[in-house]
Amino acid sequence: MEKRKIVVTSALPYANGDIHIGHLVEYLQTDFWVRFQKLRGNDCVYVCADDTHGTPVMIRARKEGITPEELIARTHAIHLKDFTDFQIAFDNYYSTNSPENKEFSEQIFAAMEKSGGITLRSSPQLYCEKCGMFLPDRFVKGTCPKCGAEGQYGDSCDKCGSTYGAEELGSPKCTTCGGTPVVKDSEHLYFELEPQHEYLEKWIPGHTTSDVSNKLLEWFREPLRGWCISRDAPYFGFEIPGHKGKFFYVWVDAPIGYLASLKNWCGSRGERFEDWWQNPKVERYHFIGKDIIRFHCLFWPGMLHVAGFEQPDKIFVHGFLTVNGEKMSKSKGTFVNARTYLDHLPPEALRYYYAAKLGPTTDDMDLNLDDFVQRVNSDLVGKVTNIASRSAQMLQKKLGGALASLAGHDEELALLKRLRDGGETVARHYEERRFSQAVVEICRLADAANEYFDRREPWKAVKSDPEAARVTLTAALNAFRILAIYLKPILPIYADKAMKLFGESEWTWGSAQTAVEGVAIGEYEYLASRIEKAQVDAMVAAAAEKPAETGEVAHESRASKNKGNGERGAGNGAVSPLKPEIAFPDFEKLDLRIGVVESCETVPKSSKLLRFVLDAGALGKRTIFSGIRAAYPEPEKLVGKEVVFVANLAPRKMSVGVSEGMILFAGEPGKCGGVLSPSSPASPGTEVT
User: Residue 468: what are its φ and ψ, rounded to 5°?
Assistant: First the structure.
């Protein structure tokens, strides 16, 4: 397969605030995708930068008694430290306050002027006489002129999604001093988009997903409005050539920062910028949040088109982060800075959980803190890491650490073949940004390895047949090695530790096709630790005590306030009233697993109950009492069947014993239900997704 050349960007974090766990939704998924491309052998360059210009930076620096340059230098170091500690690996992390960015901004503006796309208009602006300045959109709040929602910023309404000019707000207030601004006229530069109406209307569907393009194309039913690209002094940014006292609006030079960061990377590597961004054979991808679609899918391609630059091939748009089903809250301690998280929990845990939840859509993603603890512990620690922990330590302590040869051992070779055959499915999920499905597939493969390990019982064989145990442990460790390779884009440092265990210095995706045999493994290093609820509680408490310093971030993740309420129709016939409605995150707490019925018998003195004993693989045996005796007068016929059961239901003490779960059933109304079996054979303990 021919090696691909790829440029990838994430939206630029604003230099007036800290990185928080909402922002990490974007940077982590971008990092997963970039690392996967590199593991596949592609030339992939990941560039980003701090978005440094604008009034907020200028005002904050003024309040702190420092220069804007000092503020952005400090913020740059903090941001880069947070990203690095979360194992996010940029090839270049730069700044929009750079000579490359100034050069590109002036070059693109000159092309916009030459095309006739720049017009001058005198327009009303809100001016704060107390602060002595025109107010940028985000420095004024008031009542939405379209829906009447209060507390809305001066550019768009979070309630109804409308866009408008700040001067249209009702009861406007300066967010700096609280005063009431007045309206003054000021001449500004506009980039006219209507001349590009036809071009953009054709471009958008081929470079965005259908849900994004359908929303964008609603604006094409009428002429496209011009975009104001200038701001009045005082303003921290680049002054517009030929227009004294006017500065490029921050959203003009922010996306240009992608080009500037790439050029800076090229300069440090002896590469030519034109061989990357201007090369039609190079793929270019942006990862952004859904709140900045219009900047990246209307204004940005319009600017590039006029200036003769290549366009991004695709713009990948993601949703916002909610925590426990709600918008992140400072008062509840769920608005968590990246550093606050790192003070209490390992980065691998959040990387794994985000991967297990992320897909290629614009749907919001929920970080359910209880589910976070359970999933990391049961899957990453209990399912994947457990293979290496048990196998490596047993091999080292009991058998001198030497791996066997697997030649001629058909069962072991078949296990490894099954895991290797799953590799392209995992790769396809990574490529298409279905990270959650990649994790599901990896866990299914881990289930197969655990089932093999439990069935072979090497802890017994090591006493009676040490060499047979060595073969089992060799197969299990090689199975883990394959899983670690598949997880490397998500868990890079974890994979590096695993690589060291096998005495290897580098892995590619193709490394999964080989085995490590006949050599001694290295010393086992702890790979992943269980998450305790107390750690999460401490993080939440710390976040509540020290509210996140967010400032204004260029791609702020905000949960939608538009929660529609639908009416439920009443059906015919007498039915029991509904229990209180639950949120979907509550349903997600259920851990559904597959068990094999080892025994099933009636319960004396009960006309309803059957006593099941399930083989749940690595989860052990489960005794479950179910009231379906009327449906199965011959319960022994259920022995050997696979059933789906709720594995994380708290044990329930009954008069006949303790029930350790719940088996799922299905049936027709008025009749007793039947056992709900999985649709295809699977190993005991396998998670049902």
Answer: -65, -40
Looking at per-residue pLDDT, the higher value among 374 and 656 belongs to 374
Residue 421 exposed, middle or buried by CB count within 10 Å (0-12, 13-18, 19+): exposed
Contacts of 222 (CB under 8 A, 6+ apart): none
Residue from 168, 167, 178, 139 nearest 55 by CA: 139
pLDDT tens track for 591-636: 888 888 888 888 887 878 899 999 887 777 889 998 888 778 888 8
Asked if 518 and 404 count as a contact pair (C-beta separation under 8 A), the reply is yes
Encode 93-120 in three state secondary structure: EEECCCHHHHHHHHHHHHHHHHCCCEEE
Closest by CA position to 25, among listed 240, 234, 259, 287: 287
What confidence tens digit (pLDDT) does each residue in 29-85 have? 999 999 999 999 999 999 999 999 998 899 899 889 999 999 999 999 999 999 999
Eight-state DSSP code of residue 178 = -
Report the half-sphere exposure of 13 (CA within 13 A, side-chain side): 27
* Strand spans (E) along 139-234: 140-143, 152-153, 170-174, 182-191, 227-228, 230-232
Cis peptide leading into residue 234 (ω within 30°): yes
The reported pLDDT for the residue numbered 620 is 79
Q: Strand 43-50 vs strand 621-626: parallel, antiparallel, or unpaired?
A: unpaired
Helices 466-487 and 410-421 cross at an angle (nearest 10°) of 10
Question: Which contiguous run of DSSP H or E holds residue 612?
Answer: strand 610-615
Structure confidence by residue, pLDDT tens digits, 401-443: 999 999 999 999 999 999 999 999 999 999 999 999 999 999 9
pLDDT digits (tens, 9 = 90+) for 389-408: 999 999 999 999 999 999 99
Return the amino acid letter for 476. A
pTM summary value: 0.78
Quote the distance between the C-alpha of residue 138 and its chain's center: 27
Closest of 561, 455, 616, 522 to residue 152, by C-alpha: 561
Whole-number Å distance between alpha carbons of 218 and 249: 25
> What gap in Å lies between CA 51 and CA 11, rounded to an integer?
9
Q: Which two tokens stand for residue 407?
A: 């030649």
- C-alpha dihedral, 620 to 621 to 627 to 629, nearest 10°: 140
Question: CA-CA distance, 290 to 47, in Å (whole number)?
Answer: 20
Q: How far apart are CA 437 and CA 211, in angstroms?
A: 21
